[in-house]
Amino acid sequence: MVQKINLLLLLALLSGCANHSTNPSQVKADSASSPQTVVEADPFLWLEDVEGTAAIDWVKARNKKSLDVLEKHPSFAALYENNKT
Fold first, then answer.
1. pTM of this prediction?
2. What phi and psi values does residue 80 have, to the nearest 5 degrees?
3. Long-range contact list for 49-53, CB < 8 A, 24+ apart?
4. Contact 60, 50 (CB under 8 A)
């Protein structure tokens, strides 16, 4: 039970590190849009290439930024140790 609570706290901390200003889910494409219009409306479409170098580099950069913030939190070390498998 304690591990689940710790995991939920860690997930809450992670979600707080997210940059919500560039959320691609907020971009809505017209259902009658041409493929070109959809690409223009969704500047993050390239992230769907989950094995692509650009997408992987983007995710690694954001993970590093989040981890830098999380590791400074006073509870991080204890939460990390309690939830290692």
1. 0.47
2. -60, -50
3. none
4. no
